[in-house]
Amino acid sequence: MDPSSIVPLYQPIPFPAPVWLLETLLILGFFLHALPMNVVLGGGFLSAALIFAGKENREGYLFRTGKALATALPLFISFAVTQGIVPLLFVQLLYGPAFYTSSILMAVPWLSVLLIIIVSYYLSYVVIYRYFKSEKALTASGAVQTAALLLVMSLGFALVGFLFSNNMTLMLTPAKWLSMYSQNPNGLHLNLSEGTLIPRYLHFFVASFATAGITLGLFGLYIAKRNAEFSNYMIKLGSRIYLAFTLLQVPVGFWYLKSLPPEFMHKFMGGDTIAFAIFGAAMLFTLVAVVTSAMASQSGNSKAYILSLISNAVIILLMIINRHQLRVWHMNSFNLNPNNVPVSTQWDLLITFVLSAVALIVYLVWLCKLVAKAYAPKDGEALPNT
């Protein structure tokens, strides 16, 4: 059966803005979501490991680094959830016929995402207010319990990412839809038979540890003038974590590339000039990130660290663009093209959206400054004793 024959049609409603603008906002929105999301996913596991490893010495650098990261997680979670709404809305708008169908097929696990996020978010606050702000944090058993809670929280967010990967891959494979619905129409499906599912998921999962690691260096920069020794420690540790998981990410990334349909893999290898250029640029920045993070991991050099931090952000953006190109190729293969939908630009709503976006950015900058001031560490501390 021709997959395009079972893909629903777009609703007879014109898009409120040009497709190129909607796609740009989708990419930028997902980029702003991916940064804190990676810190949350990888940071939860890392903070659990650091706190557990440092449980015998709560004044040691390992425990204090894990505590600093765990204390910051609720803030990163709030940013990740808020920014995650934007790309999800644009995916629904641009590729609704595919997205809604796949969401119906896996309705039960898809709806459970909300519950998992709520519970995991709650656990991040339990760690702070039940442990870090009580005498339990002063005992080894309390540290073990804290690490266990962080691990459960992290597994919850990891499950959310896995369910998203299931939906995002299922929407690209309409040839499966009819047989899946015929087998069970109750919305209990996952896309476990998809060959790209595991490498695609691991491509994000491994990257989250690298991003969380490089974020530790930001904590180090933050206290550089107050505690140079601890600052240097966190820059080195964060750079080492980043370097290790970035090197691990390379074979995982090529596994994901190899798992793609041959015609799409060929595009990244030179068959499509733009896709190849973006992919090549990502590899170049990966090389820069590896070299500079290796330098920072040995010397704690702040300039090398900052260069690796910037390179990582650029890599994430370039990979997101490649990811979007892959989605477009899949959609075109079964004739689902948003460019065929009429456009009736609603300038009043568009202007309101732009002004609101600018206001939000100004507010977030102010909020970050306010939080930074509130969490200004005392001498010898990574963060105040929360």
From TrEMBL:
Keywords: Membrane, Transmembrane, Transmembrane helix
Statement: the UniProt record of this protein carries the keyword Transmembrane: yes
Nucleus in keyword set: no
Transmembrane segments: 20-53, 73-95, 107-132, 144-164, 201-225, 237-257, 273-292, 304-321, 349-368
Protein's name according to its UniProt entry: Uncharacterized protein
